[in-house]
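Section 5: illustrative case.
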């Protein structure tokens, strides 16, 4: 399951452990019971989230492959209750892939012509930086040193494993209008996948625990 994000990025679900019933089983073990019927199991999930009983959701785990600009990755990795492994600029040569804002980006509040010129300035700067990077590599400068000339708009990739409880926090903070626009787009892609794998949990989370303002009940 892959969702394209921005101009060259993506969020890809590569593995997951569990689903809605995983949380149900974890909660009912306290009483020596298991899953029952759909209506009661769904009602239990809503009860858990309405009352802040979130530990059963730690048993649901997602593993994603993320491709995003470095500046997005650095914000992402502030969420520390998760596991990360990232593409290494010491061991591989970075590709010439940069995120370039669009001329109609609402944060560029000039004329269409001026906004277009700003985007060309971005692109020229990125291309110049990559040319320097390539020249340094041609001069046998180690990759770990040559990479320091590259900008934060460069695309990186990483593997992210996270449980559903930590995902609640991630979505509340990043699928929110206070987050940077680019980060919002990735958070909404993650939410779409989360909803497909755990629809009951997602619905109850949005209703009772979500504190952001971009995800609404019945949407995504």
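Designed sequence:
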């Amino acid at each position: 399951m892959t969702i394209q994000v921005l101009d060259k990025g993506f969020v890809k679900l590569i593995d997951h452990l569990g689903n809605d019933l995983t949380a149900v089983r974890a909660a009912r073990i306290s009483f020596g019971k298991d899953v029952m019927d759909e209506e009661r199991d769904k009602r239990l999930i809503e009860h858990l989230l309405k009352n802040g009983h979130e530990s059963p959701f730690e048993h649901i785990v997602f593993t994603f492959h993320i491709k995003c600009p470095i500046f997005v990755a650095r914000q992402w990795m502030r969420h520390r209750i998760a596991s990360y492994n990232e593409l290494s600029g010491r061991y591989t040569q970075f590709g010439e892939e940069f995120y370039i804002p669009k001329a109609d980006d609402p944060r560029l509040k000039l004329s269409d012509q001026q906004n277009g010129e700003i985007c060309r300035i971005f692109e020229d700067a990125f291309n110049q930086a990559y040319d320097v990077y390539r020249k340094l590599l041609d001069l046998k400068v180690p990759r770990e040193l040559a990479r320091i000339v590259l900008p934060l708009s460069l695309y990186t990739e990483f593997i992210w494993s996270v449980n559903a409880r930590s995902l609640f926090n991630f979505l509340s903070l990043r699928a929110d209008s206070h987050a940077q626009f680019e980060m919002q787009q990735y958070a909404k892609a993650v939410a779409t996948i989360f909803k497909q794998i755990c629809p009951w949990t997602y619905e109850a989370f949005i209703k009772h625990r979500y504190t952001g303002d971009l995800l609404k009940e019945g949407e995504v």
